[in-house]
Every structure is written in C-alpha cells, then in structure tokens.
Amino acid sequence: MINYNLTTNIKAQIIWALMFVFFNTTAQNLVPNPSFENFITCPSKNYKPAPPPWYLATKNGPVYLNACDTSKYASVPLNVTKGFSFQYARTGSAYIYIDYENGITRGYIQVKLLDSLISGHCYYVEHFVNVPNPMKYACNNIGMLFTYKAIYVDTIGTFYGLLPANPQVLCYGNPIITDTLNWIKVSGIYKAKGGEQYLTLGNFLDNAHTNSVQIQTTGYAGAGYYIDDVSVIPLDSMQLKADAGRDTTIVKGDSVWIGSRLCGLTNVVWYNAANNVIDTGAPGLWVKPTSNTFYVIEQNVCGQYSRDTVFVNVQPLPVSMLNFECLMLNERQVKVSWETANEINVSHFNVQRSIDGITFETIGKVNAKGASTYNFNDPLTTHDSRFTTLYYRLQVVDKNGNKTYSEIKNISIGYNKEIKVFPNPTSGMINIQFPGSGNWQITITDMEGRIVWQNECRGCNGT
C-alpha cells in the first residue's frame, strides 16, 4: 500500500504548476519535477524511491533525499549517504544521490521530458552536482544523455549497471569535480537531432575511461554525487548572455581561469585589452597577466549575439625569491633552503612535499622574518624508502591568509641504493659513486670522527 502524502504532494503540484507557467512566459523548462520536490512517499531509512516522474535506469541506486524525513537517514541537510553527510539543497528541500565511479558499479536517474526536442533547435541544459562528505574519491564524466527511447540496464560485461554511451553534455574540458561545499554547474548547449524525449544523468564510461582522484584518506571507496536543479530550456525562449567570468584579483605570476565551462559553444572569440584575438571556440581559458588588464568574450550561439568583459587586477608578488634549493644532507635527511629579497605582508612559509609532483602535503612551517635566508631539514622516514624521487615546494602564506607557491624542486633520495666510495682506506684520491642524480653534501671523516674534507655536489650523477 502506498501512503500518499496529500499535503506535500498538493504543495509540490502547485509549485510545479506555477513553475511551468513561469517558464512558459519566460523560459520553459522541459524537465518535470526539476528539483525533486514533488514526491508520493517521503523517503526513509529503508525506502528511498525515485521522485516521480523520475525513475531508476539501473538497479544500482539512486537515493532520494528530502527534508520531510525526520529520522535524518534520508533527510536534508543531514543524511546517511555512504556515511553521515551534511548538505543543503541548492533550491527547495530535496536532491538525488547516485554513484558515478565505484569499482564496477554505476547509477543513473532518468525522466521523460515534457515535450520532444525539435530537430535543429538549440537547447540550454544544466544540472548541479555536489560531492557528499563521506566520499573518498571524486571523478569526471558528469554527463547528460538525451535519447529517443527510455533505457534501462541491469548487467553489461564486468560492470554492474554500466550504460555505455556518449553523453551530449559534459563540463567543458570534462574536469574532475571535487567540491564538497558548493553546488557546481554542469551545463551546455545541445542542438537536437529531433525526437529526443528522455534525459538520463550519470557516468556512461567505464573505469579505464574515467579519471578519479582521492580527496580524503578515509571514507566511501568510490565517487558519488548529489544532483539538484535539472533544466532543459529551448534557447529561443530565453536569452543566453556571454559569460567572461567574475572580476578577480591575482598575485603576479599566478594564472586564473576566465569565462565559463559551458560546453557546446563553438562560435566564440576572446580578445585581450589590445583587441587582439587570443583564443577561439572556447567558453573559457587560463590567462597569466603581469599587470592590471581586461578580456572580452564575443559569442554567437544559435543566432544570439552577446559580449562580456572581465577585469583582472594583478598585485605584486608577496615574496621575491632569489634562490630555492633542496640538498641531500645524508640518506635520512633533505635540507630545503631558500632566500628572499623582499617580503610584503608575509606571515609564514609552509614547506610542502610530494611523491608525484602533483599532490603535496605540508611537512613544516617556518615563520617569516623579512628578507632573509631560510633553512628547513626534512627527516625522512622508512616509509619514504619506497620512492627514489621526492618533490618540494613552498607555500607562501600572507597575513590575510592568501597563498602563493614557489616553483617545484625534485631530488633523488637514493634510498636502498648503495653509495660507493673507493678505494677505502686511502691516503690519496678517492672516488664517490652516487645512486642517481641530485644534490648531495659530502663529509669525509678520519678514524676518530674528525672532519677532514667537506663539500657540496649539485646535480651529481654517477661518479
């Protein structure tokens, strides 16, 4: 027996009807129940149905979450989604969760549009996603797929519930979305072939074609996302304005992304302040100005022309770095040293280390003291013996909390590698053979431990 919540459902129907009227007078959204507010039965600990007319396109999930659940297991903002999670809905009081990458599983949510898409017509499409707090990983391939017929998948190949397809809409550049705080927009322009009636959300590619990144050390061993506010709007019922991004301030030497990640834009031109073309066909790009400037985007999308301008303010570097080096003191210690010419409002330096040159962790803090020379010794542990190369950088933190970074230096640590000294003993010349390239401090002592010779070898490689 289905327990029908009349009060909530009537309210949702009224809101839905009002939204439909609004979109018909301004921009008509072809997605019914776009923010999942309308439901028949409130979700609970053991019952999380898809809110109609949405339904599951696979046996694996999704999970419906709504503030109507007072038990908090399937509530909003607090719920148990692969562990305790806290996230407000982007609008209203409900959202959906599905798996995007979890070993061999996928989840999909599907809906029939209010009307079929018209051949040759352009549509603005979007939905918003957010990473739940318990997720250990995040991934890309956050996709939107349009089809003529409803689809359902149970088991294909080695995957449980994988629906292999090429979604028409992804974020531009298909980045990995890692934000656990903000709702991130996935949007695009879709030119219909005609007759498409169904929209499906999820990851349509297998693990070999999905990029993922670990975002915390513990948690659910997969990548899943909350979904809210889904839209498919005929472009001729709205005005799509060019988006150059928000005005911003950077530190000299930094890069900044301008524009948007709206996919499907092709007739786009970017100009710099000198009115020179710097890029075409891209909704956004990375720029690295050295002084205050502005950029202009000009676009013509399905007959709609518009321009927009973004201003980038460039502040001087908080630190002028004269020298930054890493030196192997011995097989158990790396010396990180740097020298500054001037420091503006600098609070401290965080010394950061990485095993791959991409993901860094802070291993020490050195307080700023004005233009000076700094040293930090990194005592390596046996855990580091698995690696032959380590990467170091400095995170410069100013008194306002802003952060900038030095260049990255790498060094061969030579663990489990033999350093050969021959002949030994000797009363004359000796040879020292290093296990790999790097910077080394060499100290030679006599039988009583007295230093008889000491020097540094930079860029040593071989004998």
* Strand runs, count: 34
Approximate shape: globular
The main β sheet shows up as:
5 strands, antiparallel
Q: Note the beta-strand portion.
A: 35-45%
Roughly what is the average pLDDT, rounded to an integer? 85
Q: What is the topology, as strand order, of the major beta sheet? A: 2-5-15-7-12
Number of helices: 1
> What is the distance, rounded to the nearest whole angstrom, between the alpha carbons of the first and last residues?
82 Å
| Rg from alpha-carbon coordinates | 29 Å
Q: How does this model look, in words?
A:
The protein has 463 residues and is mostly beta strands. The chain is built from 1 helix and 34 strands. Strands 2-5-15-7-12 form a 5-stranded antiparallel beta sheet, with no helix packed on it. A 5-stranded mixed beta sheet has the order 16-22-21-18-19, with no helix packed on it. The longest helix has 20 residues, at 6-25.
